[in-house]
User: Fold this.
Amino acid sequence: MIAINSVEAVLLGAGACLLIVAGMVLLFLGVRARSEAAAVRHERDRLDALLRAGPALPMLVRADGGIDMPRRLADWLGLVDVARFQEELSADHGGLAPEDNAALATDLTAAQRTGRGFRRIVRPVGSPRTLLFDGARAPHDQGAGGAVVVWVFDMTEAQDQIARLEHETRRLGSAFEALTGLIEAAPLPMWYRGPDLRLAMVNSAYVDAVEGRDAADVVGRGLELVEGSGRGGPLAGAAAARDAGRPHDQVLPATIDGARRALRVYDVPLPTGDIAGFAIDIEDLEQSRAGAKRFAEAQRAMFDRLSAAVAHFGPTRELVFCNQPFRRMFAMRAEWLADHPEFDRILERMRDAKRSPEVRDFPGWKAERVAWFRQASGGIEEQWHLPDGTHLRVVAQPLPDGGLLLIFEDRTEEVQLASARDTLLRVRTATFDNLFEALGVFAADGRLQVWNNRFRALWGLEDDFLSSHPRVDMFADRVAGRLATPSRASLIVDLVRSAAIERQQRGGRVALADGRHFEFAGVPLPDGNALFTLLDITDSRRAEQALRDRANALETADRVKTAFVANMSYELRTPLTSISGFAEMLHGGFAGALPDTARSYVEAILESTERLGLLVDDVLDLTRGGEGAEIAREDVDVAGVVRMAADTIRAVVRRRRLDFAVEIQRSVGRVTGDRRRLQEVIEHLLRHAVEQTPEGGRILLHADGDAGRARIIVSDDGQGMDADSVARAFDRFAEPEIKATGERALGLGLPLARQFVEAHGGIVTLVSEPGEGTLVTVELPRRVVEKNKP
Assistant:
């Protein structure tokens, strides 16, 4: 045996250890290489799966023209075999068309030389696919210098989608243009706001409303259609629509073309966050609504003033409105009606209040009235006879909205009046036929309509002729022979036509051939007809002739009496003048001085002769009649006349110890008349006052006036006059009046005063009470209007 020393043993052990370590290292490296290879295969498989599932397939074109492509790409190109070179991409029954292949070669060459990428869409021959070649030069760090990597995308579905999208785009573009044209041509303002609520687009109507130059100017300046800001401004509605995510509308005022208008503004949020808006001019609508409201209120106010009861029911048969007469007529409380009861309940309430007709089948009757709501067209009218005797005329008018309008007219009084009218007609007919007058009524067309028995008997006409209602000219021809003068029959025609057509009443007298006389008249009647009446005046005519003969005789006697009185007055004046003259001579001492007793006798003679002279003058004035009433026409100062009249009476006033006051105001002015007659008027009134006033009494003479007249007042506090004396004060033929001294006076002063005042166109009035005195007022116009002159 070979002995192994320790050194060798150590070396052998170290070698064995090295071998073991080397084996373990190799085993570790092998295991790691295997793991890395598995990872590489897994990554390859993953990448291959991604390539297979990806939308694109790769193709590598080397600098020498060689091509590396997967089999799937060859199938996309319609090639039988995988192409190895660029020329093989074009084939007779597949691949690229020659022009497409040439264009692709140009793109590849440009990419290899310049590194510029390219894109090209081709459609392989015989393949339904559309392919997109997206090429770029390969990176140098991949060991493919000068190569181009081309990714091929299958764009078939995308291209179809693109075509559809292009078609949809064109359609939407056309629709957008049409919508834009519609918006631009719209008569109402429309706009578009961005998310910041600033105007982005407006149409022409908006531009015109804000008086802008064009849409760009309006958008640039941000001109708002509606004035104001804040909660009530134009942006408030847009912000509300944007925040709420739903359309918003509000009514805002705006000034358009210088006029104040009411606009309903709509803001509509869009999915993009923008806001579209438009405005509708509702001014006319608001005015119409206001007008309709005012009309409805006026109509209801008018209904309340009607005597007829009115009730308005809506489409749901609920009471909408009723007037005051309705509540009164059917005894319904306002509180109950305020709840808007239905039509059925109102009918039931009418029945309970006994304000509806009594019927056996009330439900059926009520159903018939409810059917009025379904009436197609036209109104319904019927008569209700209530248990208390009331007669109602009911008119039901269906309304277009499905409602119903009811009108109740109380015709009770009308029915009663109709009954009374029928009775009156019968009474009138009986009275008409039994009148003493002959009556005939002619219509407006001239035909005889109604006549009484005396009319038929007077003219001797047959019933058949009258029943034919002859015309007035035929009637006149028929009765002409019964007149004393047949030609006067034409007066009947003229009389009837004047009453029927001209509406004038005319009359006259006619004589018949038998000697009778009739007074006739044509009277227009309220209904347009003419009443022809004839009254037999034969007896009254004879009496009238007798009275006329008697009046003529009395006038002749009066003239003889007047002439006698006038002559006697003149005859009386001659001795009266002699008596007065001799008495004045005696009183003046021409026959020597007279004792006191004789002087008082002479003064009594003078006073008596003066009174007798005045009385003679008064009698002469009265007997002259119209001649005495003749007055002069001159300018008269009334104040002066009043003073002169007062002066003439002062001596008598002093003798009677009377308080005589004269008041003359400047307003009395001047009049046109007879100075002497006016003075006589005042003197007569003053003498009458003196005669009626006892000693110690008071007499007032007052004169004033205005622009149109002068006024003279004579008053006294004497014994006064009773009513009979006042009524006969101006009667010249009245009994003599009693003076304050107890003597009887003829009393011609007041009649003469009135005669002269009336000759001046004035008036005289007298007011008196027994024991209270008398007040006489004379009113004279400034200018006298002459009578019997045109």
